[in-house]
Amino acid sequence: MFKGLIGKKVGMTQIFDQDGNAVPITLIEAGPCFVTQIRQTKHDGYSAVQLGFGAVNERKISGGEKGHLKKNEIPSVKYLREFNAKTIDVKEGDVVDVSQFAVGNHVDVVGYSKGRGFAGAVKRYGFRGGPKTHGQSDRVRAPGSHGSGTTPGRVYKGSRGPGHMGNERVTSQHVEVVYVDVEKNLLGINGSVPGPKGGLVVIKEARKQ
């Protein structure tokens, strides 16, 4: 059975379990999503379901996208994402929502981490920095030496150091669904998920069961 949704991160809150313990959860406004296309192995070389999410003004999408959606009389959507699926039990034009998930299910949530811009090595990788002694009080947050001298005589590619931080695709694997509200299209995930408030996330069935 196909399970997958596109949504937006609302924020974090907490609920209480049966024993009265506070459980931190992330609320996601998931769906409703339109099935915009079915990919078949015979024609496309792989099997997948394409979903559309997020209402948008028709003037803000391309002509090709309009034709793509008009084929199944689907309203204009802002986001299109594909989900690999071995067994497909939906058809083009269908609407899927949070009712396909239940409390206790495990899912993978894919999003983009918060962008931090250019960051130093101390913030980016947790480097200790240098001591404030022997006349180097201005080197406290410096990364220090990156390598040897003559050999190799250069810094290896991929070495940890200052650079762009965040805004990378991150997957929270095997997280538990602890809250489902079909009327409000809300999904509660145990713990945190990547991205800022309002960030786009993709929810799919956990790969590691």
UniProtKB/TrEMBL annotation:
One GO location term (cellular component): cytosolic large ribosomal subunit
SUPFAM superfamilies the UniProt entry points to: Translation proteins (SSF50447)
Keywords for this protein: Ribonucleoprotein, Ribosomal protein, RNA-binding, rRNA-binding
Annotated stretches, region: Disordered: 129-170
Functional note: One of the primary rRNA binding proteins, it binds directly near the 3'-end of the 23S rRNA, where it nucleates assembly of the 50S subunit.
Subunit and interaction comment: Part of the 50S ribosomal subunit. Forms a cluster with proteins L14 and L19.
Protein name in UniProt: Large ribosomal subunit protein uL3
Species whose genome carries this gene: Anaerolinea thermophila
Lineage, opening ranks: Bacteria, Bacillati, Chloroflexota, Anaerolineae, Anaerolineales
Name of the gene: rplC
